[in-house]
Amino acid sequence: MRTVLLLIGSNVFMNFAWYGHLKFRSHSLLVVVLVSWLIALPEYALQVPANRLGFGQFTSAQLKIMQEAISISVFLLLNRYYLQAVTHWNEWLAFGLIIAAVVCMQLPQLLGQTPPSAITAGEH
After folding, report:
1. Environment class of residue 6 by beta-carbon count within 10 Å: exposed (0-12), middle (13-18) or buried (19+)?
2. Is 61 exposed, middle or buried, given 0-12, 13-18 or 19+ CB atoms closer than 10 A?
3. How far is it, in rounded angstroms, from Cα 70 to Cα 4?
4. Maximum CA pair distance of the chain?
5. Taking Cα atoms as reference points, which of 103, 50, 94 lies closest to residue 73?
6. Residue 54: inside a domain, yes or no?
7. Are 116 and 59 spatial neighbours (Cβ–Cβ below 8 Å)?
8. Residue 58: which domain range?
């Protein structure tokens, strides 16, 4: 659960860094890039521990797929409530396909099968 919460927190910062500046179109590109970097710093401070803590419980591929699904979930909220943009049917469909990928990733656990163990440092 810690991994998921850290991933959610990191994605809140990252989505604001990537898309929050769209409401400030009158500011120079240099200014919004610098502000975005400052916003992205806490994202890294959460993302790296999330991956470090989660690796072993999850494979690196599972961590990446979770991160993408969380990122899109956070983006949809930011898009609707911060940017006041409408999400169209094809975008919802694309989001649904990503959620389907998360379910596919978890199928072995859902079916009671032993998941492949993550490679730990030193086993290369």
Report:
1. buried
2. exposed
3. 8
4. 54
5. 94
6. yes
7. yes
8. 2-110
- For 65-101, the pLDDT digits (tens) are 889 889 999 999 999 999 999 999 999 999 899 888 8
Split into its structural domains, the chain has a count of 1
pLDDT surpassing 50 at residue 38 = yes
- In-domain check, residue 71: yes
Could you count the other beta carbons within 10 Å of the beta carbon of residue 67?
21
| DSSP string for residues in 98-120 | HHHHHHHHHHHHHTTPPPPPPPP
Pull the structure tokens for residue 108.
Answer: 């072995």
Residue 111 has pLDDT above 90, yes or no: no
CA 83 to chain centre: 19
Amino acid symbol at 20: G
51: in domain: yes
Q: What is the Cα–Cα distance from 76 to 91, expressed in whole angstroms? A: 10
Tokens of 57: 């419980």
> Tokens 């649904």 sit at which residue?
96
Q: Confirm whether 92 is domain-assigned.
A: yes
**Which sign does the torsion angle of CA 24, 25, 27, 29 carry?**
positive
What pLDDT digit, counting tens, does each position of 52-65 carry? 999 998 889 889 98
